[in-house]
Amino acid sequence: MANGAGHHPASIEALPMSRIDERYLRARLDHTRLSRRELLRGLLRPVAASFAATPPLRQQREIPRPPQAQEEPLLAQLCNGCGACATACPNQIISVEHGFPRLDLEHNYCDLCLACTAACETRALIPELPAMTGLVPVFNENCVLSYGESCTLCQEACPSQAITLPSAGLPQVSAEHCQGCARCIQSCYVSGCTMPQAD
Ligand code: SF4
Ligand code: SF4
Ligand code: SF4
């Protein structure tokens, strides 16, 4: 992963705080307008049920981001690629890739300490959002439960009580409760679960 600032049309870094607030509000407004248009489009669709069933955006991220990152269109407008979040992260799991913060949960987990949010001056990461990376682990056949052995490591590691262990078969994850921290992944000694979106 390459570190370094990406290409941004206007540098927020160079703006005084009042201009940053103004820019944030403008971006937020644009985004709200877009969401309303998309909502109307969705309501006009004959299969409105499929729209209603769409999971929250935090579970749909294609690129792993810090836990309180704005939705992608807002992140793209607000983040200036300064890397303050990466420097602040005690677990060293953030890198700036193509100008935006990306999480690497392959070798470490996220503590959900939110030091990254505290370091972000542009409101690309904001404390008003729930602390979730937008990723959900998937269990695979390496998990020893799949061949009848017992293990509770992932469940014990989970700070959100999001994992249940059925009497037969793979562990189940509640997408509603999972915060995408990857502690379960780091606790597993047979690579029985992965974050597919983090590849
Ligand atoms: S919440 Fe803490 S551990 Fe997680 S990415 Fe942010 S700074 Fe790193
Ligand atoms: S601290 Fe904020 S503006 Fe800087 S790279 Fe991280 S998310 Fe972007
Ligand atoms: S430890 Fe729990 S909250 Fe963290 S990713 Fe795994 S299931 Fe989700």
TrEMBL record:
Residues 70-99, 101-130, 135-168, 169-198 form the 4Fe-4S ferredoxin-type domain. One of its GO terms (molecular function) is metal ion binding. Coiled coil: none annotated. Keywords: Iron, Iron-sulfur, Metal-binding. It holds the Pfam family Fer4_7. PANTHER family: FERREDOXIN SUBUNIT OF PYRUVATE:FLAVODOXIN OXIDOREDUCTASE, FERREDOXIN SUBUNIT OF PYRUVATE:FLAVODOXIN OXIDOREDUCTASE-RELATED. This is 4Fe-4S binding protein. It comes from Vreelandella salicampi. The lineage of its organism: Bacteria, Pseudomonadati, Pseudomonadota, Gammaproteobacteria, Oceanospirillales.
